[in-house]
Amino acid sequence: MSDLHTILITGASGYLGGSLLAQWSRSSLPPYKRLLALVRTEEQASAVKREYGAEAEPIVFDTKDEKAVRAAVLDNQISIVFFLVDAMTAQAQGYFISALAELKGRTGVDVHFLHTSGAKIFSSHAGAPTDRPLLDTDPDLYEIQKAQKAPIPLIQSAVNTNNTVIEQAESLGVHSYIFVPCIVYGRGEGFGNRISIQTVAIVKAARALRRVYSVDDGSPAWPVCHVHDNTTLYLALLRGILAGGTNRPGSGKNGYYLASSGHVAWESLYAAMAARLAQRGVVDEGGKVERATPQTLEAMGKALGCPAEFVALQLGGRCTFTPRHGEEALGWKPRYPAQHILDTAGDEVDLILENLGE
């Protein structure tokens, strides 16, 4: 029964997790027992109580501490975990999955683990196929991921994490889901971080070099999603899990869900953001976009705190990952079309500059 479920959300102070908590009270969900929000500090715990006291209870523990994870899951009888804090390694996820399996063994309740991955892990950066649309409903997607060879070890680790979550969960009788955000934009609704990652990288690099640079040959595109729509897919998936029955959402090797309203060319996004950056006096020459040279990539890397070869990882690449699962299985429909990120690029720039202290 769904009313037996206690739900844990990790990353409650983050951009995605905070927005999920904020929309929670406006969502019509089947009944459940409790909602716990994992935070890192007592200050954040106070913020959860203040902002969401009627909806969520804060909880503080270290996800990298196996004993702490096990105690939290078993003591609180947590049967659904939405994991939003680490896409790169599988350590903490493994602790949660093992604890969920133990809870299932003790109580017989169905247990569920959602891992938040990322579109990079289904892109050129990760050795994924980009010569055709890669559907999130592709029955061979798990095998495709298993065969991927990422040119960057950090990204290979993230690919392996997806696979490990699926394999470990399957072996222990835990339903697993791979939730995939892409370029997420728009003002976050949570009490903590209000801004995205990829769009911030474009602004940070442009601010340091006083120009926007493209980092790819050709005109590669990437999936995009407004933060509101990303949140409604999280909630649609949760709604399906809580409802249970024969129409339970696909899981395991059939449990990939991309939150996206469509694809946008990076060069279009660069140009749209550069126009407002020029109006704000952050870049020169009317917001002209140029192709990056090895020298400018070095400078961009310094601005972003990464080696030059990691710059394109933050604000470029080709991703043909295409959403079908959310709409076909859950009835999810994004409110904002892909073009919306270009139409509101000026607002995004203003939001980022405001949060960067300008």
| Average pLDDT number | 96
Instruction: Note the beta-strand portion.
Output: 15-25%
CATH architecture identity: 3-Layer(aba) Sandwich
Our count of domains comes out at 1
Global shape: globular
User: How many strand elements?
Assistant: 14
Radius of gyration: 20 Å
Could you give the distance between the termini?
50 Å
Q: Which class of secondary structure composition applies to the elements?
A: alpha/beta
Note down, in words, how this protein is organized:
The strands form four sheets. The chain has a seven-stranded parallel sheet, sandwiched between helices. It has a three-stranded mixed sheet with strand order 8-10-12. With 358 residues, it is of the alpha/beta class. Helix 1 (15-24) packs across helix 8 (227-243), helix 4 (91-107) packs parallel to helix 6 (153-172) and helix 7 packs across helix 10. The termini are far apart. It contains 14 helices and 14 strands. The chain has a single domain (2-195, 222-261, 319-335), classed as Rossmann fold, CATH 3.40.50.
What's a quick, concise take on this entry?
The model has no long low-confidence stretch (mean pLDDT 96).
Ordered list of secondary-structure elements with their pairings:
Layout: E1 6-9, H1 15-24, E2 34-39, H2 42-52, E3 57-60, H3 66-76, E4 78-83, H4 91-107, E5 112-116, E6 134-135, H5 141-147, H6 153-172, E7 175-180, E8 183-185, H7 198-209, E9 212-214, E10 221-226, H8 227-243, E11 256-258, E12 262-265, H9 266-279, E13 289-291, H10 294-304, H11 311-315, E14 321-322, H12 325-330, H13 340-343, H14 345-355
Parallel strand pairs: 1-2, 1-4, 2-3, 4-5, 5-7, 6-14, 7-11, 8-10, 9-13
Antiparallel strand pairs: 10-12
Helix pairs in contact: 1-8, 3-4, 4-6, 7-9, 7-10, 9-14
